[in-house]
Target: D-2-hydroxyacid dehydrogenase
Amino acid sequence: MRILANDGIDPIGKKLLEDAGIEVDTNNIPQEELASKLNAYDGITVRSATKVRKDLIDACPNLKVIGRGGVGMDNIDVEYAKSKGIAVENTPAASSQSVAELVFTHLFNGVRFVYDANRKMPVEGGTNFNGLKKAYAKGVELKGKKIGIIGFGRIGKETAKLALGAGMDVLAFDLYDIPATLPLELSGGVKVDVPVTKVSMDTLLAESDFISLHIPFTEKPVLGAVEFEKVKQGVGIVNCSRGGTIDEAALIAALDSGKVSFAGLDVFDNEPTPLVALLQHPKVSLTPHIGAATNEAQERIGVELANLLIGHLNG
Ligand code: NAD
Model:
């Protein structure tokens, strides 16, 4: 059995596969060459870069399994693959903690202007130190503030736990049921159930000091001009979910008007080339879709994926 790990795989996951007698090729084959080369493999693992579309599936009748390291399956024609008898697996929970921590990286960064200081210190630090100090004098604490979480699934819940730990109130909106409390494990093994307030979208928009999105790709943005009209003055926005969930032009307008005080974005409409207006915006902090890019998440993804693939190929 042979697997092509086209977007890489954690070494521990690779070893698990090899120990199970499965050969693992970690060479990255360019997308345009895959149709002529992938049929030599029994399975492929991808992250978000490699696309496994209908035409590739049709070109590779030997393919038995497709593994996606991570959550979103937007880059795979899942139903078509399954209709051809190909198993499709992903690792939805492996990166939740890492993504939630990136949300807080953006939040702490946003309320203390770290993104802007990082841009200006190398240029103005020596000549305008006190001026910059003054510009960043109005930071705020997260403690005691309300965070509105849109999408209360795996990552939304992990984000809520961090928020509760930071002394924030959590307002949650989801299309489905939301638990009234979340179990929190503190150091020393102490467990507490902390309350979560389930609200309507309008209440979340009106009352949140910060809003974080944790929903899948949506055809129509969930935060657009109409929603930005309803938000609290000076709200901070974080999006570590999927491009397309925020209307980027409406966000820029809301940042320019001061309605939104800052935005921390890990995902964009047009990855990997976000709008220049976002890249250069003084109130926007950007990361290149790195929510799951931690050693811990990659190891969990690799191990989970390896076990799933072994189940299909050796089962
Ligand atoms: P999940 O399926 O566990 O949770 C998503 C939740 O959103 C569900 O509870 C669903 O009911 C809710 N939802 C869907 N549409 C909604 C809407 N319009 N309004 C309100 N709620 C809605 O998913 P998850 O594992 O928590 O992942 C959330 C998002 O994060 C996904 O888009 C995923 O692709 C993304 N993600 C990003 C990174 C990254 O690197 N930035 C890494 C992993 C996952």
